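A quick aside before the break. I want you to see a complete sequence-to-structure record at least once, exactly as it would be stored in a machine-readable document. Don't worry about memorizing anything.
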Amino acid sequence: MSLKNLLWLLPLVCLAACSGGAGNSYYDNNPSAAKMESATSDSVAVAAADAPINSPKRKIIHTADFNCKVAEVFTATTKLENLVRSVGGIVQESQMNNTSYDTRTSYYTADSLRETKTYTPTATLTLRVPSQHIDSVVNAIPGMCTFVDSRVLKQSDVTYKYLANVLKNQVGNSNATKQAMKLAKKSHEPIQVQAYDNYTQEQRIDRKIENMNMDENINYATLTVALSQPEQVFVQTIVNPDYIAKTPFSLQCKSALNTGWELIKMFIVLCIRIWPLILVLIATLILVKRFTRRQLAVVKK
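That is the input. The structure line, written in tokens, reads:
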């Protein structure tokens, strides 16, 4: 709905603010609960916004990213997971892989080959750590590593964004707004008013969910760790497929006999197909031979 179509709601809001009245929502029937929730959210958010930037009341989201080399990936991963669990955190994701760089195959015996594979074990972890213990975990990580490639620590202050969501929701839940919506629904555009009401309700829900998500990220820092160890070599003996697929001598002889027999049959079939030509050739040879004999007999006389 366009802004122009909603401008007529403004006088209704003012009228409802002046006139007041009883609503039918939970907070209308329970004003003490509404006031308590509003006062609590407002006081906490305002206190955090008024506190200095280094105050623990501020709403800070902590994140940390590490890229490290270790002597053994599996051991370091296990230690780090146990450390996070010991301080009340959780392992959100833990993935280990072997990245292969080169694979070579050489002759070993008649029926087997030797395969040499060069690979690097790696691990990627996403950890959620209580914010009060993030410094302890961050300081413990270098002791588990042989070399730290990179380290990124970040603190995101979401105090004012959190306060903005709280204040916007309080405005949306005010008695003046609710009375204005009641009066607007009696006007000549009830469908548009209902659509606007649904839209504002969805906005309030989204802001509440966003604040809940921020609370979770504030209470639990996100730690991402990438681990790798020096290249490893893995050697194993594998079957030689060429030797296994090789045809035995007896089968080769049998195949050769079958091939020869097939050639003979093909020759016989060919002769049968060209028998007229063969007859003509034989008759020609006989005539040439007789003619040659007569010529020799004439010469002798």
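Two observations worth writing down. The radius of gyration is 45 Å. Residues 1-29 have pLDDT under 50 and may be disordered. We'll return to this after the break.
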